[in-house]
Design a protein that fits this description.
alpha/beta, Methyltransferase, Cobalt-precorrin-4 Transmethylase, Domain 2, six-stranded mixed sheet, 22% strand, elongated
């Protein structure tokens, strides 16, 4: 009998925001899948529980693993598979890497072991988890998704503001791509993963006179909050999220 592949959202950063279902899935699985995004891992690597890890640096750099460890210490005792997930845009190269990752996970599932892929926020929102999930599902393996609190919901709560009210629209935009057209949409715009493009993003916000607030590393120890476009630094980390609204006539209250 095949094992099940489950994408588990661990939330935005605070282990206390993990769901009971996420905790249960991690406790019950046999293997934890760890995505490695820095491009240094050439192929999937499997390690047994209890073995001295040769890849501890990847565990230390995996934010999702660190969050899970804060709520489920038993995650340290699981077998793990490190999966290369480089942050590149060459589609053909990425396809080959994701195929390789899915094949490696499939070999584990064939042994009847359940695999949990840890992902920040929610697995259905810009998650690398889905590249493996879709391939395994197509191959006929059992797959599941455990939702997590999305970063934009946590950021809005942290800033004590609403995302949308009454008839307002809500738009989720990947800020690492062209966003000028998206900023013209009505209602609230959420800009995710804006770090590398922050200089351009800030320039557009100021030019269009939009209200913006930003949380960097929401729920983590190094969290920072900025309450206006003017306050936002031109250099910010990868996990920077902005909530943008049209400027109210005459200034008005915070968004």
């Amino acid at each position: 009998m095949s094992g099940t592949f489950t994408g588990v959202g661990v939330g935005p950063g605070d282990p206390e925001l993990m769901t009971l279902k996420a905790v249960h899935a991690i406790r019950e699985c046999s293997v934890i899948a760890i995505p490695v995004s820095d491009g240094s891992l050439e192929g999937p690597v499997y390690e047994k529980a209890g073995d001295k890890s040769r890849y501890g640096e990847y565990l230390d750099r995996c934010v999702a693993f660190g969050i899970a460890r804060g709520a489920v210490p038993e995650v340290e005792e699981k077998d793990r598979i490190f999966l290369p997930m480089p942050m590149i845009k060459e589609r053909e190269r990425l396809k080959k890497i994701h195929d390789m990752d899915a094949d490696a996970v499939a070999d584990i599932l064939k042994e009847g072991m359940d695999v949990v892929f840890l992902t920040l926020g929610d697995p259905t929102v810009y998650s690398t988890c889905m590249y493996v999930h879709k391939r395994l599902k197509k191959k006929g393996y059992p797959t599941e998704l455990v939702p997590g609190i999305p970063s934009f919901c946590a950021a809005a709560a942290r800033m004590d503001i609403s995302l949308a009210e009454n008839r307002q629209e809500l738009h989720i935009l990947p800020a690492s791509y062209q966003i000028e057209e998206g900023l013209g949409l009505p209602g609230t715009k959420v800009l995710m993963k804006a770090g590398k493009k922050m200089t351009d993003v800030k320039e557009l916000l100021m030019e269009k006179e939009l209200e913006a607030e930003m949380v960097e590393n929401c729920g983590m120890k190094n969290e920072k909050v900025y309450l206006s476009a003017e306050e936002i630094p031109e250099q910010a980390g990868y996990y920077s999220l902005l909530i943008v609204k049209e400027k109210k006539p005459g200034g008005g209250e915070r968004i």
